Amino acid sequence: MKILIVEDEVFIAYAEQEILELDDHETELCHNGREALELILKNDYDLILLDIMLPEMDGFEIMEKTSFRNIPVIMVTAKNDIHDRMKGYRLGAVDYIVKPFELLELKTKVDEILTRVGKSTPVLLYGDLELNLENQMILKNNEVVGVTQKEFELAKYFIRNQGILLDCAHLMSVVWGDEIIRENRVVENHVRQLQQKLGWQECLIAVGEQGYKLQKLTQNREQI
Question: How far apart are CA 143 and CA 130, in angstroms?
Fold first, then answer.
């Protein structure tokens, strides 16, 4: 996927670029509102990460002038202001994220938006595994593996974040959401089940007491 990152804070822009290119997305950086407008008008992008406060032209004006392009836009703002969010949605933004944010939160939003608008594909591959995102089914060597919904969500998140150390608190937040889960043992038990069911004993590893990491496979891609 080709993603335009419009962000005037250079450190944030490069951090966004790095996390997105881990998923083999092609990215382009822009730090100025007027330059961003020119790029959007002459190039094709699958998604735009658009900061609101920019030099020369703000994100709202950019959305007003480019709405006909129908490119999904995730607003990035330093203010958690309901009026700014509603204005962004009226102008066509599909989601927003408030600074400061975790890079994994941004990555998750990008994955969700690309899937929602049909830019991403409904099947994840990892080695001999195939995860169908539409029917939440896992195949291993073309044989169905019986997993619970939480196990499926956990496996999907590990695959989408290969090579990244994920701590238990973060996994609880992503997979269990608002459910009251207070013990790391819940995550540990689910990880153990995935290791056994998917044959991940060697590739899904505990990193001390910090969390878990799924070994990155360079040949892994999302496919139709």
Answer: 10
